[in-house]
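Quick start: load a record and inspect it. Here is ADP-ribosylation factor-like protein 11:
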Amino acid sequence: MSLHTPVKDVIQVILMGLDSAGKSTILARLLTGQVMETSPTIGFNVGTLDLDKKTSLTLWDVGGQKHMRPKWRLYLDDCEALVFVVDSSDQSRMAEAKAALKKILGEEKLQGVPLMVLANKKDLPNCMNIREVSNQLELPSYTDRHWEIQACSAVKGLGLQQAFISVSKMIKKPII
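Running the structure step on this input writes:
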């Protein structure tokens, strides 16, 4: 009788979004369970999230400042899902977020790659609900891929685990 350890699926997931959307806070919260003081990401942060005994997600948190966005495409090799984070309490930047999302989804390497939009900061007053965020980003127009939107709060830890379980399931779904 031979004992062998089952091989874990390691899935590459990229977190993108405008600066100050909460990507690094989300990554830190998922990996440590803590809220950590973050500063603007120059380059990227990376960590592995174990969803279950068979599935791990390697999460790449890529800086979102305006000067970093042209470099986003350099992080797309082997990307199996895109998690786009928006600050749902900042309506003034939704048009900028929509343009950034549209540009990155136009990259050939992301053709058919599932999209999870995290409407972060749902714990703040005057935040938009997921329908408003979805409409602002024109998510229904993305008919070439699976996509979902999830309200979350990185600071409170709300909605994060569910969102990444959904990401894992979307990756395994065949494209229609």
